[in-house]
UniProtKB/TrEMBL annotation:
Swiss-Prot/TrEMBL keywords: Transferase
Full-protein residues shown: 1 to 263 of 360
An annotated GO BP: chorismate metabolic process
Class of the enzyme per the UniProt entry, highest EC level: isomerase
Name of protein: chorismate mutase
Keyword Disulfide bond tagged: no
Enzyme Commission number(s) from the entry: 5.4.99.5
Domain of life: Bacteria
GO MF: chorismate mutase activity; transferase activity
UniProt entry tagged with the keyword Cytoplasm: no
């Protein structure tokens, strides 16, 4: 596979610095989305994220605001001039997101595990020019991650990015999802032109781990970070313990050291 980011948000944003993706785990209200985006706009983050359709492990939790949230992201794009992204898990999600001109789509960890679901998304992406970020599957399976990337690539999408969000484990560890760094390192060794981003929020599961996990990833030569950011993290409707305020994000970004030698 040969990845091409020539016209991507990715190459334009990067310029030797790590790419920064930030925004709430979930879009909750129009005001929360706009308020977060305004604060992040001041920090020149490269891509705004917010989940609209939320895959929850068990029923009964907040499952996202659905399609109406796409219009809020579209407002962030039009009014603040930011690039916006959301998670897609079905062909319908892809179609709706593209109708609302979402700039970048991502495939979540619970979707990457399912070849049928990924293929359905790939089919919906045929002939479409939109960058796609593929999170690792929930289980530590490199082939499944590569397979999902290949399915999207074969649909003609070469502007692809991999996101490392850690892996489920039944063992109790300090992480919510254990990083198993060898897996993304092996992915990157195999596909050097594939950008690799760390998601320290889902790896750590708590905000204290965002800095050390991000720094470790940058030390390994990762190309960027995706950090969940919420105006009032403790009140968030999903992933409250791992979200940070935009002010805290600025501190974290200010403290991260970027090594000159990468990989
Ligand atoms: C998310 O990014 O909010 C999310 C649901 O992530 P993951 O697919 O990594 O669990
Ligand atoms: Mn989340």
């Amino acid at each position: 596979m040969k990845f091409n980011h020539a016209e991507s948000f990715f190459s334009a944003a990067q310029q030797g610095q790590p790419l920064v993706i930030a925004g709430p785990c979930s879009a909750e209200t129009e005001e929360q989305v706009l308020q977060t985006a305004r604060a992040l706009k001041q920090q020149n983050i490269h891509l705004f994220r917010a989940g609209i359709w939320k895959p929850r492990t068990r029923p009964g939790s907040f499952e996202g605001v659905g399609s109406q949230g796409l219009a809020w992201l579209n407002r962030v794009k039009r009014e603040l001039g930011m690039k916006v992204s959301t998670e897609v898990a079905t062909a319908r999600h892809v179609e709706e997101a593209l109708k609302q001109e979402i700039d970048v789509l991502w495939i979540g960890a619970r979707t990457t595990v399912n070849p049928f679901a990924v293929q359905e998304i790939a089919d919906a992406l045929q002939g479409v020019h939109v960058p796609v970020m593929v999170k690792n599957p929930v289980n530590p399976d490199l082939a499944l991650w590569i397979g999902a990337i290949e399915r999207i690539y074969h649909a003609g999408v070469t502007d692809l990015v991999a996101i490392h969000r850690g892996f489920s484990s039944y063992q109790k560890t300090k992480y919510r999802n254990v990083p198993v760094w060898q897996i993304p390192i092996e992915l990157k060794a195999r596909y050097q032109s594939l950008p690799l981003i760390v998601d320290p929020s889902h790896i750590g599961g708590r905000r204290e781990l965002i800095f050390p996990v991000s720094q470790k990833a940058l030390d390994l030569g990762y190309d960027g970070v995706m950090i969940e950011t919420h105006p009032t993290p403790d009140l968030a409707l999903s992933d409250a313990a791992q979200q940070v305020t935009p002010a805290r994000l600025a501190e974290i970004l200010g403290q991260l050291q970027v090594r000159k030698t990468r990989y």
